[in-house]
Amino acid sequence: MKHRLDHLVLCVHDLNAARALYERLGFTTTPPAEHPFGTGNSLIQLDGNFLELLAVIAPDKIPPPKTGDFGFAARARSFLESREGMALLALDSTDARRDLAAFQAAGLTTYAPIDFSRGTTLPDGSAATVSFSLAVTTVANMPEAAFFVCQQHEPENFWRREYQQHENGATRVGEVIMAAPAPQTVAGFLERMSGGEVTSEPGQVTITLGQDRISVLGPARFAKRFPGTPF
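Now predict its structure.
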């Protein structure tokens, strides 16, 4: 099944400071919300996908490691021990368990499905609930990244046009750029995980997902596109 980009999980140390930064950049952020497993978030909703600013806000609520579980909050905490930034990439799903079975059939590493609910604040200030089901996969040669599909159960409480109006004019995440020493070595995983169409050229792999794409750049391509940025 071909997926599309759903959201990027951007791990940050200070949620309020991150919200303030993105608001200075001209984005509208949603009111902070709390997950039941120790993390909290604020979103930047766009047209059909979004950015998730995520921080550990209640470390005592992070569940202890359990065999077969991905450990979403523990993963975020571990990531933040070395840096901030994109720790997980989510694709859309209408049936997370069906996608989990597809991951398994494709020979990908999988974990127990994650189901959870959290509160949300609607633009008029009223409270509502949103619920999600996730299916996570990882691959050994991309140890610093994780991928999952996200199924929403109350999309009418989640997507709100008021939160999608941004002073800077941003409308959508159209491309996710990742860096890898040898992009071709991750092409097979990304193709099986996403169902996208792979284009390979020296130093770059592109996975096309309808109007979206994931680009994996090697050192030379990365330096050309982002001069002066450490690889």
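The mean pLDDT is 96.
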